[in-house]
Structure formats: C-alpha cells, structure tokens
Amino acid sequence: MPRTNAAGWGLKRLLEATLNRDITIEQLRDACGVTKGRWYGGVGRANADDFPDAEEARRAAHAFGLSATWLQVELGLITLDDVRGALDESTSLDPFKMTTRQRVLQVPNPPAEQPARTDGRER
C-alpha cells in the first residue's frame, strides 16, 4: 500500500485536493520522474509500499508548484521536528560569513572640472 497522509489520501488525491483540479496518472508519473515501464512494470512504483519516496515527492512538489518540504511532511517522510531542527542548525551557522566580501569597492573620483576656454571654442 503506497504512502498516505494522516487522512489516508495517497499522493494523487492529496495533490488534486491541494491544487483543486484533476491530475492524470501520466501527469503524476512524469512529475515524479518515473518511466512508464517502471510505473507499471515489475514491482511497479504505483503500488509500492514506499511510493512516493522523498525524491519522488520532491519532484512532484516542484512540478506542481508546491513546497517539497510541505509535501514530505504531509506524507510522513519527514517530521516537523526534523524541519525545526534543520532550521535551528542553519541559524547557528553564518552562511554569509565566508562568502561576503570584506573589502569596500572604491568609486573613482569624478574628473575635476577644467577651466572654461577663453578663445570661445568648445572642448
């Protein structure tokens, strides 16, 4: 049985409810990055216990313009505590410290005005 959210909805139904529109199996398969042969053939991703995995959920979220983190939390692939922990860790690091340039760019001085010509010609 594929993964479901807390309400028991699979990926297709969850996406349809969130987007408020129908999604075809082909759209879902393409969004997850699964080939037709892998979707139906052999063990078949469509009915696999681990469908969708984290990467398939991420791809589907991006394909439909949703947050990958939200979809992974909704399907139980990650928890809110995982998200909070990742955010807490990232604030303790200073991501700009090593990448920000410390020097100040010097703007060249504008050329000094030259005195007007006395012979009436322009420069």
Alpha carbon gap, first and last residue: 84 Å
CATH domain fold name of the domain at 11-82: 434 Repressor (Amino-terminal Domain)
Shape: elongated
What is the architecture of the domain at 11-82 at the second tier of CATH?
Orthogonal Bundle
CATH class of the domain at 11-82: Mainly Alpha
Structure description:
The structure is a single chain. The chain is an all-alpha fold. The protein has a domain at 11-82: Orthogonal Bundle (434 Repressor (Amino-terminal Domain)). 42% of the residues lie in helices and 0% in strands. The chain contains 6 helices and no strands. Helix 2 packs across helix 4 (54-63). The longest helix has 13 residues, at 80-92. It is elongated. The relative contact order is 0.11.
Walk me through the topology:
Layout: H1 11-19, H2 25-32, H3 36-40, H4 54-63, H5 68-74, H6 80-92
Features:
123 residues, 434 Repressor (Amino-terminal Domain), 6 helices, 42% helix, 0% strand, elongated
Describe the structure concisely for a colleague.
By secondary structure, the protein is mostly helical.
